[in-house]
Amino acid sequence: MARLHEHQGKALLKQLKIPIPQGGPAKSSQEAKRIALEIGKPVVIKAQIWSTGRASLGGICFADSPELAENLAEELLESGVEGFLVNTVLVEERVAIEREFFASIIIDDQSKSPVIIFSSHGGTGIEEIAKEQPQAVQQHIIDIQLGLRDFEARDMVRRTGIQGKLQLSIGAILVKLYQCARKFDARSVEINPLALTSEGKLVAVDCRITIDDYAVYRQPELDIEVAREFDRPPSELERIAWEIEKNDYRGTFYFIQMEDGFSKGEGMIGFHGAGGGGSMMSMDAVMARGYKIANFVDTSGNPPASKVYRAAKIILAQSGIDGYFASGSGVASQEQFHSARGLVKAFMEEPLRVPAVIRLGGNAEDRAIVILERAQSFVPAKIEGYGKDDSPDFCAERLESLINTHKPSNSDASSFIHTEAITPYTFPTVTNGKVTFDHAACSTCETKICIETCVPGILKLENEVPVLNISEDEAAKGKCIECLACEIECWFDGNRGGRIELPIPGLEEYQAK
Amino acid sequence: MAILIDSSKRVLVQGITGREGRARARLMKEYGSQVVAGVTPGKGGQDVDGVPVFDTVQEAVETVGDLDISVLFIPAPLVKNAALEAYASGVKLLVIIPDRVPIYDVLEIAEAAKESDARFIGPNTLGVLSPGKAVVGMIGGRAASAKSWFFPGPVGITSRSGGITSSMAYYLAQEGIGATTLVHVGGDAVVGTPHPDVLKLFEKDPETRAIVMFGEIGGSQEEQVADLIENGEVTKPVIAFIGGKAAKSGTRFSHAGAIIEGSRGTYDGKVKRLKEVDAVVVDAFGDLPRMTKLTLEKHGIKL
User: Fold this and answer.
1) Could you list the pLDDT tens digit for every one of the 303 residues in chain B?
2) Which residues of A touch B258 (CB under 8 A)?
3) B148 and B287 assigned to the same domain
4) Domain range spanning residue B95?
5) Residue A151 CB partners (closer than 8 Å, separation 6+)
6) What are the angstrom distances between the C-alpha of A226 and each of A11, A230, A245?
7) Looking at CA atoms only, how far is residue A161 from chain B in angstroms?
8) Which residues are paired to A351 by β-bridges?
């Protein structure tokens, strides 16, 4: 779930007219001072980080003057909080709190409905309050068609023992809170505390909102960079990976870095899973051998070879890994030679210098394993391919054995290099890729292997060289599924005239660093 | 018998002219499913592998007659409307393949299902397969693979992971254990027919004699299954594996999630609850076939 910072969440509450403290976000100490001046009252300065217990970490400070606000903001922005970088602080009026409440909306899988929770006691320790004083914490299942109705909200508040005008005004805020959740496709919304000030006003003093990753496309104004729950800002590789995921709807691609700043010899494994359940078991198998998982990747749901290729390139960009482990459920419905082609393109380009154990059980696994075996002579490190009758534990054992015994040859250069095309014939692909046939090479090719192995069958021979049998436009719109056969199979069996360039924006710059 | 799908069910494919829809329609037919119609708005009148394509579900129903199941191969943003359309035309079971369907859309579909006394599997599901009978969705991939991997038998299989659905059935088959039906309930936080609902269906199916379940951390499906066993709604033996032991914790939605779920959602909580009600919980996935066989023998169930 894409988590919003407190100030972003408050901006959404404000749109629904839920009162928030006066103030705003600042990215510099000068800006913080300006906001404090504008407020003209004692202020609180809150580091905008994704962490609970910010106060105890020193992420929340108080200032009675704009000058002090400036100094404190500078300190937070410069030194961060407990290892968290702080690039924004929230400067707000200091609220004199008389009483604290708690209000939240989440999605409940059992009732398949949004559920609203209100507690007449807010602040810290809300979970304990729920256990000790159950009557203080009320829940209500919201009808998705009707929304939260005013009388339902008021009745919840009544059941906690709150009466009179306060009952009405809290009820009204709860109704707006649900409207906010619905409007912005929130997976969860929480105001804690919802404060009653000494002037008798209700104010949302702190809030946490997470947005449904799957609905980010229809919430462009939220400007969510990476629709995924992180307890930290996304890393550079995660940003690069997200751009690929976001722009390619075919199959799933998920990349998350678990470790950073490691080097060779620390036992970090580049992990490439397929499907959630199988990935979990495969990671368990690797960890059971004492290795650590550098990253988690999932390419599943019948992804094109190009997506698997890009995932593999990003995994390999982690230069400190000691091995590459790819393993899914073991009995995949998708045809596994697509994944195999994606992997070997990445492996041969790099070239692969750490052992790789690839478990590609499922449909067409034999073809997949043959592709892996044929790539072996073009990479310095060992590749082993396995199928559905080889368990994750066995494959992890193989990886361990290879890491311990196998020393890749020192040849650094990739032998997978295409000579420059003399008579290029090119067409674009759906992910800004480019397929090129060097017709000079193709004309003397004996196998014309590209024609029969092209999965969508969009190539034909014309004057003994391959050309599209559909329009260039159709190819670019996705008829060319980037199966990579015209490059990989041609490299193995043809005259090496076919190649495909698949850009990964930002990856080269990352590796240059 | 089997649950949800067999060769007597008349299947509609929504999104039949797309990349996946076209390929899967053919594979479903090859396996034995009765694919009688397809729908893609604006492409009515076409034909995909002998299956007539209609503009709307209503047109399909008016032309080919009532439809039992619709399987959706369409982009996630369009799923809600397609699902509501199918319900409006009287389809009682939807199989929603795509992932990334917005959660509020899923909640709306769930509400519509309730109102029409209908059901859906998914979203984010590989589908349902009854060995030797029919498949809806993409379990098994090629029909030839699916035919060689799975065969009929006494075990009902239900899984929260797509790949594991096939794996479990395959590894059980290697041990000589066949299945009535394989159900991938779907990988999302909210799914139409979670484990407890699937188990109730298996309980009613006379051919299903035992149930093998792949659970995962997060949510409360497995705990609900334990509740069903405890109160006697599920009496058939249940053999379970819970994935995600090594993961740090289940997905938690802050305080509110903890208030609603309590200890539910964790690996330990799920295993403990299931063991309390005498379900067989295996620690290693590789032990599942052997433990299933032992359990079947213990209950005098023939393979």
Assistant:
1) 799 999 999 999 999 999 889 999 999 999 999 999 999 999 999 999 999 999 999 999 999 999 999 999 999 999 999 999 999 999 999 999 998 999 999 999 999 999 999 999 999 999 999 999 999 999 988 888 999 999 999 999 999 988 899 999 999 999 999 999 999 999 888 999 999 999 999 999 999 999 999 998 888 899 999 999 999 999 999 999 998 776 554 334 446 555 555 667 788 899 999 999 999 999 888 899 999 999 999 999 988
2) 127
3) yes
4) 10-121
5) none
6) 19, 9, 10
7) 19
8) none
User: Does residue A127 sit in helix, strand or coil?
Assistant: helix
State the Cα–Cα distance between residues B76 and A54, nearest whole angstrom: 37
- At B44, the amino acid letter reads G
Q: State in words which class domain A97-222 has.
A: alpha beta
Query: Other C-beta atoms within 10 Å of B23: how many?
Result: 16
* Residue B255: active-site member: yes
* CATH fourth-level superfamily of A23-93: ATP-grasp fold, A domain (3.30.1490.20)
Does the bond joining B289 to the residue before it have cis omega, within 30 degrees of 0? no
Portion 159-198 of A in contact with B at CB < 8 A: 182, 185, 187-188, 190, 192
Tell me the C-alpha distance between A140 and A122, whole Å: 18
pTM value? 0.89
